[in-house]
Amino acid sequence: MKCRVCRGPAVIDLPRHNANFCADHFLRYCHNQVERAIHDHAMLAPGERVLVAVSGGKDSLALWDLLGALGWEADGLYVGLGIGDYSDVSGEHARRFAADRSLRLIEVDLRSSYDFDVPTAAAVTRRVPCSACGLSKRHLFDKAALDGGYDAMATGHNLDDEAAVLYGNVLRWQTAYLGRQRPVLPAGNGFPRKVKPLVRLTERETAAYCVLRGIDYQVEECPMAAGNRHLGYKEVLNEMERRSPGTKSSFYFGFVDRAVDRFADGAPQPGGEPAPAVLGRCTRCGAPAESELCAFCRLVERAGGAEPVPVAPPRRRS
Ligand code: SF4
Ligand code: ZN
Ligand code: ZN
């Protein structure tokens, strides 16, 4: 197996590009893919300050590393979710990465700041943990980006994530979600700009990037992930990708290039779904809200102060 560029020994094969790369040219490939995503979708302008949502996993640490390598001033934000050992270990990875590179890591802890954690919120609301978790992360990411005056909030969603979410939204024709599934969401209406610079890289590629860059990341799976539908969608898409390399990329980028505008706010909705309500402000925290309190403050009302529930230890990824 030889590198497509220099003909030296290759360390990775990328069937969807019909290419193999040595370590140096693979790292260059990752830089190029991220630069291209940022440029093609006008995610960031030179000199802008970025806040990276850091979980301690491969994608967010690769993203933080890549943005720095490409010249952006990027701080990290770690949210302590209180998911037992899993959160303890992920926090250690995020802190070590930041300390080793003298980067600034902002931390918010759900338990110490809001008196609840994800497992407790799931038990109190009787919904899947990812629901309270996603809601809390979105709220705290937005708040930290706005409070810190950052130009954009960057998340480590990769091509596998975006293709799986798209697949799920298409299966259920979730038209309102489809209209917002873009690599960049502009700032406005009380939200910061949100960007996904890793959309051109797959999970396997971000993992390889971390290994080649010596980035130590959290490999264990979240013990609350069971029941997360996207894991199943990823398996289906991986099988299709194996049979026909390039499927994920053409599915996702075909949608972004040719279909997402059809689902935008104000566009006629195929399912007759009502246009999203104009948002007011939460009377407690000032965040955009559909009622008196935003969804996060309502969650704090319900789960704050509830007795913590035990959490299973993290599972090794299969
Ligand atoms: Fe949160 Fe679900 Fe991800 Fe676990 S798997 S970190 S609960 S969103
Ligand atoms: Zn090479
Ligand atoms: Zn609120």
Give an overview of the whole structure.
There is one protein chain. This protein is of the alpha/beta class and 318 residues long. It has a single domain (46-312), classed as HUPs (Rossmann fold, 3-Layer(aba) Sandwich), CATH 3.40.50.620. Helix content is 46%, strand content 12%. It has helices spanning 23-40, 58-69, 84-100, 110-114, 118-125, 129-147, 159-171, 175-180, 203-213, 229-243, 247-258, 295-303, and strands at residues 12-14, 19-21, 49-53, 73-80, 105-109, 152-154, 184-185, 194-195, 220-221, 280-281, 288-289, 315-316. A six-stranded mixed sheet has the order 5-4-3-6-8-7, with helices on both faces. The protein has a two-stranded antiparallel ribbon with strand order 1-2. It has a two-stranded antiparallel ribbon with strand order 9-12. Strand 10 and strand 11 (288-289) form a beta hairpin. Helix 1 crosses helix 9 and helix 7 (159-171) packs across helix 11 (247-258). The longest helix has 19 residues, at 129-147. It is globular. The model is unreliable at 269-275 (pLDDT under 50). Bound molecules: iron/sulfur cluster (SF4) and zinc ion (ZN) (2 copies). One zinc ion binds at residues 3, 5-6, 8, 21-22, 24-25.
